[in-house]
Please model this.
Amino acid sequence: MAATQHVEQEQEQEQEQDLQPQEDAAQVRQAEFAEAVEIEVAPGEENLDLLLDVQMPLTVIMGRTIMPFKKLLQLGQGSVIQLDSMVGQPADVYIQDIRFATADIVVVDNCFAIRIREILGVDHAELKSAK
Model:
C-alpha cells in the first residue's frame, strides 16, 4: 500500500508542476501594430491592378429542359435532348452565377463561341440572391 501512495503522490506532484508556468514556455505579449494611414483616392482612379488577373467562371446557357429521372436513365450516346430555346435566340451569359449578358452562339475554328449581344445592368436583388 505504501508503494501505491508513493506513486499517487508523485503523480500529484507532476500534475502540480504541469500547472505552474515554466521558464521555457513561450512568452505571451500584446501585439503592437502601426496605425493604418487612410489615403484619399479620387473616383475612377482606384488601383484595380490586383483584380485584373483574377479568374472568373463564365457560364453560357443555351437553353433548358426538365425531364423525368426515368428518361435521364434511358439517355445514351446519340440521344437528342430538346431545349426550350429557338435557333437564333440569344443565350444567357453568367459570371459567377450572376446574369451578365446575352450572346449569340457562333462557331470559330470548329469550336463553339459566343458573340456578345448585350451587356446587362447589375440587378442588386440578383446579387443578394447569388450570395
